[in-house]
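Sequence, please.
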C-alpha cells in the first residue's frame, strides 16, 4: 500500500485499487491487460511490494504485474511483466510497458519479485529478484516520458534512487560470493563508483542524502561494516557503532533518519550521519518502543502501555499520546492496523 494525499493505492497481482481514505470508497485504478501469472493467496500476499508514487508535478503510481499471454496460431505463449504507470489526476488513463523476463527469471526455482525502487525526474527504476538466490537479479530503468526501457543491469539489485544516482548491490559474477555497494548514473547506467568487494552486502535507502551499507569482510568474517555512504560518490560519511543493530530506516522529512532493529531504535542527522540518540538507554531507564512510522519530526510507535510519539531529533517522549500508531501517514491521513483482526483504520491528520 502507498499513500498519495487522501488516496491509498493497494497492489494486487492483477490490479491496483484506489481507496478514498475519507469515505472508504474503493475503485480500480488499473488492471492487467492480459492474464495475471499469479493469483492472490495468503502466501503471496506478503510478497507483493507496495506501489511507488513519484514526486513529479503530475505524480504517477508505479507498479509491475507478472502476466501470461496464451499462445495463438503460430505465436508461442509468453510470460512477461507489465510496468504500469497510473496518473493520480482524476480521469487520466494508465499506461503499460511490456518488459521481457530475463532467462534466469524464466528458469528460477524460487519466487521472483519485481519492486519499484524509486524515481527521479523522468526516470524510474525497478528491480527483479529471486527471493532465494541473492545474485539472480536484474535492474531496469524506464523513461516515463517515452515509455521505454533506458537500460538494464544484470547482477545489480538497486536499493535507492537519489538525484541522478542509482545505488545498490553489485555481484562480481553469477553465483559469486563477493558483492560491492555501487552507484550508477540514472540516465546512462555508467558506473559512478564501486566500493570494496565484500560479502553479505546489504544496501538500504537512508533518506535524501545517505545510504546505509552493511557487510562482512571477505577475508575475515569477524570483521563487520556498518557505514553511511554518500550515494553520489560512495564516500563513507560515518562508520556506525557495532551496537546499533538493524537497517530498516525511514526519513522523517525534516532532517532526521530513524532506524530500527530488534529492540533498538536510533537516529542520525540525515546529512552528516552523526548519531543523535539511541534506545534503549539503561542509564535513563528507557526502553525501545516498536516504531510504526515517522513523519515531520515525529516518531509513531507502540509501547507496552499503548501508542506514543517521540521527537525524532531528540528521542524524547512527546506529552500528547495518539489513540493509534499509524503504519502509513502523510499530511492528509494516517492508516493503522488493528492487532485483533488486522483490519485497517484511516483517520485524518493535520499540519
Amino acid at each position: 500500500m502507498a499513500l498519495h494525499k487522501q488516496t491509498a493505492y493497494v497492489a494486487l497481482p492483477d490490479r491496483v485499487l484506489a481507496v478514498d481514505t475519507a469515505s472508504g470508497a474503493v475503485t480500480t485504478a488499473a488492471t492487467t491487460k492480459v492474464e495475471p501469472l499469479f493469483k492472490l493467496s495468503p502466501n503471496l500476499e506478503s510478497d507483493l511490494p507496495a506501489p511507488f508514487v513519484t514526486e513529479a508535478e503530475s505524480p504517477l503510481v508505479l507498479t509491475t504485474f507478472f502476466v501470461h499471454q496464451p499462445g495463438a496460431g503460430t505465436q508461442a505463449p509468453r510470460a512477461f511483466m507489465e510496468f504500469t504507470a497510473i496518473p493520480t489526476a482524476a480521469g487520466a488513463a494508465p499506461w503499460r510497458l511490456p518488459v521481457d523476463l530475463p532467462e534466469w527469471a524464466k528458469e528460477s526455482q524460487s519466487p521472483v519479485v519485481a519492486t519499484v525502487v524509486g524515481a527521479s525526474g523522468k526516470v524510474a527504476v525497478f528491480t527483479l529478484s529471486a527471493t532465494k538466490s541473492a545474485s539472480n537479479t536484474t535492474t531496469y530503468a524506464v523513461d516515463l516520458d517515452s515509455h521505454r526501457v533506458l537500460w538494464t543491469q544484470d547482477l545489480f539489485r538497486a536499493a535507492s534512487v537519489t538525484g541522478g544516482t542509482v545505488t545498490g548491490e553489485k555481484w562480481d559474477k553469477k553465483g559469486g560470493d563477493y558483492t560491492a555497494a555501487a552507484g550508477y548514473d540514472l540516465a546512462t547506467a555508467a558506473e559512478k563508483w564501486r566500493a570494496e568487494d565484500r560479502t553479505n552486502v546489504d544496501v538500504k535507502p537512508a533518506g535524501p542524502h545517505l545510504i546505509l551499507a552493511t557487510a562482512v569482510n571477505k577475508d575475515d568474517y569477524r570483521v563487520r561494516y556498518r557505514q553511511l555512504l554518500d550515494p553520489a560518490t560512495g564516500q563513507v560519511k560515518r562508520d556506525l557503532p557495532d551496537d546499533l543493530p538493524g537497517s530498516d530506516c525511514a526519513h522523517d522529512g525534516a532532517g532526521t533518519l530513524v532506524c530500527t532493529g530488534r529492540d533498538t531504535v536510533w537516529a542520525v542527522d540525515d546529512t552528516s550521519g552523526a548519531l543523535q540518540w539511541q534506545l534503549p538507554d539503561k542509564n535513563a531507564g528507557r526502553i525501545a518502543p516498536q516504531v510504526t512510522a515517522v513523519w515531520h519530526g515525529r516518531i509513531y510507535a507502540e509501547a507496552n502501555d499503548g501508542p506514543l510519539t517521540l521527537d525524532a531529533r531528540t528521542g524524547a517522549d512527546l506529552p500528547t499520546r495518539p489513540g493509534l500508531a499509524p503504519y502509513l501517514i502523510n499530511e492528509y491521513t494516517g492508516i493503522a492496523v488493528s492487532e485483533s483482526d488486522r483490519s485497517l483504520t484511516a483517520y485524518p491528520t493535520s499540519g
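The first helix runs from residue 42 to 45.
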